[in-house]
């Protein structure tokens, strides 16, 4: 079974996101707009987009469908180092800067941008993978992917995995029925290693 095509328009390769009841999907269109479409759409129903072509890099929707997370694109065509949250009920819009957790009082890395995002069941935490850069001194840097959680209630950032040289962690996906299980991809020295299923005890 090849499934059912919802939209006849081109879409970007970024991961689409579906509400908890499966009724609505959000995605990035081929012209880099943020769009939403009912999953029971037929030929008479089309996606509803923001009308912000060239401005959206990645999107995700909370299980209850109330919140949509968006990574926007800057004037140079690069993803911004922030995540914006839209409340689909009251229309409010809030932007959270991407911050690296502190080590010994200083940021251990610079978070350049987020990509794949996934909400917890209550919509209060947003998990995301981010492209980070560490200054090694003398003009040298090291770049890697890691997974973080953005606390939308208290505006704080949690690091879910300790950075390991040569190891990238990304594509976070929470279990559908429990926030206790998190699936991530692990790539070590450029080679795909595993689909890690981690039990969370937060």
Fold topology:
Blueprint: E1 17-18, E2 24-28, E3 34-38, E4 48-49, E5 56-61, E6 67-72, E7 82-87, E8 93-97, E9 102-103, E10 106-107, E11 110-119, E12 125-137, E13 140-151, E14 156-159, E15 167-174, E16 181-188, E17 191-199
Antiparallel strand pairs: 1-2, 2-3, 3-4, 5-6, 6-7, 7-8, 9-10, 11-12, 12-13, 13-14, 15-16, 16-17
Number of helices: 0
What percent strand? over 45%
- Helix and strand succession? EEEEEEEEEEEEEEEEE
Shape: globular
Biggest sheet strand order reads 1-2-3-4
Number of strands: 17
Largest sheet: 4 strands, antiparallel
The helical percent reads under 10%
Rg from Cα: 17 Å
Mean pLDDT over the full residue set: 87
Helix/strand-derived category reads mainly beta
Could you give the distance between the termini?
38 Å
Low-confidence stretches: none
Write a compact overview of the structure shown.
This protein has 202 residues and is mainly β. It is 0% helix and 52% strand.
Report what the structure shows.
The protein is mainly β. It is built from no helices and 17 strands. The protein has strands at 17-18, 24-28, 34-38, 48-49, 56-61, 67-72, 82-87, 93-97, 102-103, 106-107, 110-119, 125-137, 140-151, 156-159, 167-174, 181-188, 191-199. A four-stranded antiparallel beta sheet has the order 1-2-3-4, with no helix packed on it. The radius of gyration is 17 Å and the shape is globular. The chain starts with 16 loop residues before the first strand and ends with a strand.
């Amino acid at each position: 079974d090849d499934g059912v095509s919802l939209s006849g328009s081109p879409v970007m390769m970024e991961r689409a996101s579906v509400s908890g009841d499966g009724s609505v999907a959000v995605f990035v269109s081929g012209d880099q707009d943020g769009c939403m479409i009912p999953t029971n759409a037929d030929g008479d129903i089309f996606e509803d987009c923001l009308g912000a072509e060239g401005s959206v890099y990645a999107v995700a929707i909370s299980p209850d469908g109330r919140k949509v997370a968006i990574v926007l694109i800057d004037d140079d065509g690069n993803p911004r180092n922030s995540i914006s949250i839209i409340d689909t009920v009251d229309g409010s819009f809030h932007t959270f800067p991407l911050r690296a957790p502190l080590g010994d009082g200083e940021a251990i890395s610079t978070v350049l941008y987020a990509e794949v995002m996934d909400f917890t069941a209550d919509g209060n935490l947003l998990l995301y993978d981010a492209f980070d850069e560490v200054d090694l001194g003398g003009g040298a840097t090291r770049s890697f992917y890691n997974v973080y959680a953005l606390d939308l209630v208290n505006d704080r950032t949690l690091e879910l995995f300790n950075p390991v040289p040569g190891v990238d962690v990304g594509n976070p996906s929470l279990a559908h029925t429990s926030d206790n299980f998190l699936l991530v991809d692990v790539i070590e020295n450029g080679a795909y290693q595993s689909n890690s299923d981690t039990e969370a005890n937060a």
